[in-house]
């Protein structure tokens, strides 16, 4: 059964494009879209994954194929970002960050020390946090986390995250968007927390500069 016919009304925008790609390429289409989530965060996996589950419920591909393809896409995208970070390198990254107003060398040093201590947990759990799931592979590459370890952590974290959304989309059927709505709330909460942390950082740094 074609995915378009299963909908009460045609999907538009990003969802419509994702559905069309999965209709045309099957599981490979799902892998491409989820992989792009790592390179272009505006393409949210929280939207694509339930759609992949719904597509599986309509027989476009099996549930196991949906999980396999979406996890492959997640890992492939993360690997690309990892190697971009590795090519950029520590020294070049440090030099670029020091050009940003209000950023100090000590900020980079503390971040580097934190990643050296908590990098394993950061990569694993980062795959399950909106926004950070698209970014965490970069510092892993910059700090040259052993590639085998990075690959295992990324695969496990991605598989857990993808299973949650794909299986929910499979069970919800035409109501797959319900999962996307709840995920959107979580994503806004993360964005809000990041925004607050950024404001606190800027205010604190400006206050320190005035006192100095």
Written overview of the protein:
This protein is mostly helical. It is built from eleven helices and no strands. It has helices spanning 3-6, 13-25, 27-39, 45-57, 63-88, 90-97, 105-126, 132-135, 137-142, 147-172, 177-211. Helix 3 packs parallel to helix 5 and helix 4 packs antiparallel against helix 5 (63-88). Mean pLDDT is 76; it is low at 1-10.
- SSE-based structural type: mainly alpha
Order of helices and strands: HHHHHHHHHHH
Strand percentage lies at under 5%
Quick one: overall form?
elongated
Count of helical regions: 11
The low-pLDDT segments are 1-10
Cα-atom Rg, whole angstroms?
19 Å
Number of strands: 0
Q: Mind summarizing the main beta sheet?
A: none
Oligomer: single chain
Average pLDDT taken over every residue? 76
**Fraction of residues in helices?**
over 70%
| Distance between the amino and carboxyl termini | 68 Å
């Amino acid at each position: 059964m074609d995915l378009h016919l299963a909908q009460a009304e045609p999907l538009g925008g990003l969802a419509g494009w994702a559905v069309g790609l999965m209709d045309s390429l099957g599981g490979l289409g799902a892998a491409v879209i989820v992989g792009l989530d790592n390179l272009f965060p505006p393409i949210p996996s929280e939207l694509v994954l339930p759609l992949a589950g719904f597509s599986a419920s309509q027989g476009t591909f099996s549930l196991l194929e949906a999980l396999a393809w979406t996890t492959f896409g997640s890992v492939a995208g993360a690997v690309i970002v990892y190697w971009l970070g590795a090519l950029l390198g520590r020294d070049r990254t440090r030099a670029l960050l020091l050009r940003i107003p209000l950023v100090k060398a000590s900020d980079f040093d503390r971040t580097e020390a934190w990643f050296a201590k908590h990098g394993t947990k950061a990569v694993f759990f980062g795959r399950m946090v909106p926004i950070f799931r698209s970014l965490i592979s970069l510092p892993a590459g910059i700090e040259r986390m052993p590639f085998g370890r990075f690959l295992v952590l990324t695969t496990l974290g991605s598989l857990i995250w993808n299973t949650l959304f794909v299986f929910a989309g499979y069970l919800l059927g035409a109501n797959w968007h319900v999962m996307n709505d709840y995920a959107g709330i979580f994503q806004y909460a993360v964005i809000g927390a990041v925004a607050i942390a950024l404001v606190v950082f800027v205010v604190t740094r400006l206050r320190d500069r005035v006192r100095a």
